[in-house]
Amino acid sequence: MGFNPYFHDSNLVESEMKANSQAMKVAEIIDRIYFYGAGSSSPELCEVIAEGLSRVFQKARIHVGHDLDGAAYSTHTGEPAVTCILGTGSNSCMFDGSSVTEEVPALAYILGDEGSGSWFGKKLLSSFLYNKLPEVIREDFIEQYGLDKMSITKRVYQEPNANVFLASFMTFIGRHKSHPLVQSWLDEGFKAFLDVHVACFEEAPRMPIHFVGSVAYHFQDALNKACNDRGYRVGNIIKKPIDGLAKYHVDFIFKAEEL
User: Fold this and answer.
1) Angle of CA points 217, 212, 133, to nearest 5°
2) I need a surface site. Which of 97, 121, 146, 168 has the fewest CB within 10 A?
C-alpha cells in the first residue's frame, strides 16, 4: 500500500512493512532508504513516515520526500520541465535539474485533484446517483458493483480512504472511454487540471510537460488531446516512475553523496 501521513500514522507504516516478507528479508542490511509519497510535504509530515520506517530498517539512513520530487526525478531528461501526477490524486511541479518548485497546492480529493482517478470516480458515481448515466453504462455498473445510494455514501463519507474508493472505478471508466459522455468527462477533467496545475507556470508553454501515474498512462489519448488544445507539448508519460527514479538516484544522488 501507499503511505500518506495525512491518513496513516507511524504505527501503520511499521506494521505494514513488517507484514511484507520481502522487505523483512533485507531489513537488517539496508543502509539507505529514499521514500517519496503523497502528503509528505512538510518536515513534520515526513517525520511520520520516517519514524515508521526507522523502526523496521534500524540501520538505514532515511530520506522522506514528496511524491512530486519523485515524479520530477523519474522523468528528468536534462531539460527543465513541468512534471505532473495524474493517479489517484493530482499535482504538479517544475524541475530545472536542481530544485523542485510548486506554484499551487494539491487540495486532495474534496477540494481539488482535478483530472485524477478520484475526480473521475466522483463524476461516475454522481451521474449514477442522479440517474444521468446512459442505459448501457448504468446496467453495466449495476451488474458489476451492485451499489446503491446508501452503500456509496457510506464508503465516501463514513469509511477511510474514500479517495482510493473513488479512484477504483477508473477501470470501469476505461471500459467505456469511447462513449461520448465519458469522453466529455475526460476532456473536462484534463483541461481543468491543465488550467489549474500547468497554466500556473509561466514557462510551461515553452517546455515539455511530463506525466506520471496510471490515469495519465491509460488515458493518454484524451490527455494528449487536452494538451494539444491548450498548446502544451507533452513529454514523457510514465505509468510507474520507479525505473526512472532508481536511475536518477544512481546517476545523481549516489554520486553526489560519494563526493
Assistant:
1) 50
2) 146
Q: Which residues of 147-173 are buried (b: 16+ CB within 10 A; e: fewer)?
A: beeeebeebbeeeeebbbbbbbbbebb
Q: For residue 106, what is its C-alpha cell? A: 494539491
Contact 211, 238 (CB under 8 A): yes
Q: Could you read off the pLDDT of 14-49 as tens digits, one per residue? A: 999 999 999 999 999 999 999 998 888 889 999 999
pLDDT of residue 253: 74
pLDDT in tens, 153-173: 999 999 888 999 999 999 999
Instruction: Say yes or no to pLDDT of 248 above 90.
Output: no
DSSP 206-223: GSEEEEESHHHHHTHHHH
The class of domain 79-239 in CATH terms is alpha beta
Residue entry with cell 512534471: 83
Distances from the Cα of 114 to the Cαs of 76, 157, 197, in angstroms? 24, 20, 9
